[in-house]
Amino acid sequence: MPGWLDRRAARRWFERAASAPADADPLAREVERRMAERLDYVRHAPARALQVGCGAAGVAAVRHRYPAIEIIALDSAFPLVRRARAARPLGARARSLFGATRERFVAGDMSALPLRTGAVGLVWSNLALAWSPDLAATLREWHRVLEVGGLLMFTTYGPDTLKELRGAFDDDAPHVHPFPDMHDIGDALAAGGFADPVVDMEMITLTYTGFDRLCADLRATGQRNAHAQRRRALTGTKRWARAVAAYAALARDARVPATFEIVYGHAWKAAPRFAADGRSIIRFNTGGANRKTA
Predict the structure, then answer these.
(1) Strand order, beta sheet including 103-107
(2) Is residue 211 part of a domain?
(3) What does DSSP assign to residue 233?
(4) DSSP state of 272
(5) In a domain, 115, yes or no
(6) 210 falls within a domain
(7) Which residues are CB-neighbours of 100 under 8 A, at least 6 positions away?
(8) Cα(39)–Cα(63) distance, rounded to whole angstroms?
(9) What SS3 class is residue 72?
């Protein structure tokens, strides 16, 4: 469903979230930790990485895995970029003063990256893809900036995310974003030119003392409704009370649930099979030397 996102509203919500404590989003940190564990099964040593969405936890996970790597950290909201840059360890900040920084921070659009083709060996993104209004276009752009043999690793939300919140309202206005199914993501990876895509998911359920506490957490982390067709007027008192009551009916042991469907994915950029003019590229391996012809 390309075009569903109000980009200005989304950027505004995340700019406001930059003032929240750095540890205000434990879910994002836990999901990134689980994603990083998957690198234990991947043999890859990139020289440069692009981290799409650096606002939640900075670049710590990538830096821990690859201590010598150069990182380009990108986010759509400049205040989040500034916060991630300020959160660097003292040693990294000192190196940057002498022009030897290995971390560069950029405010930009994940679907129109300010990088040349084949610029990075790793694209790393934790939950940022959920904010793309055009999944296929964004994945094609990520494929473009990867070098041949480069790796994409990402997480995003699946369609059952916040299903309780979606069901609590009794109107037709969208209150939760339209998150893609993992199978659609796999198809988009293949269509975008990626090789050997692997996509799976898990459900994580958080519990809150009440509906208001959940909404406060979502607002604090910038994850507010930015659907282009959302209701622009204030939610009426009666409609809000009905939503609170519907959510309260889900309570167990005085706590209400919030489901997050987390989709994990990785894929590789293989050598191209076609030249720019459409001719097939045929590769020969003779005596250990790779040759190609079009």
Answers:
(1) 103-107, 70-75, 48-52, 120-126, 146-157, 256-269, 194-208
(2) no
(3) S
(4) P
(5) yes
(6) no
(7) none
(8) 13
(9) strand
Question: Could you identify the residue written with the tokens 């007027």?
Answer: 233
Provide DSSP, 94-116. HHHHTT--SEEEEE-BTTB-SS-
Neighbours of 287 (CB within 10 A): 5
Full pLDDT tens readout for the chain, 294 residues:
678 999 999 999 999 988 887 677 899 999 999 999 999 999 999 999 999 998 756 688 899 999 999 999 999 988 888 888 887 765 555 455 444 458 999 999 999 999 999 999 999 999 999 999 999 999 999 999 999 999 999 999 999 999 999 999 999 999 999 999 999 999 999 999 999 999 999 999 999 999 999 999 999 999 999 999 998 888 889 999 999 999 999 999 999 999 999 999 999 999 876 655 666 565 555 555 444 444
In the chain, the number of structural domains is 1
* In-domain check, residue 196: yes
Residues 6+ apart with CB under 8 A from 2: 133, 134, 136, 137
* Token pair listed for 275: 């030249």
Domain that holds residue 191: 7-157+179-202+262-293
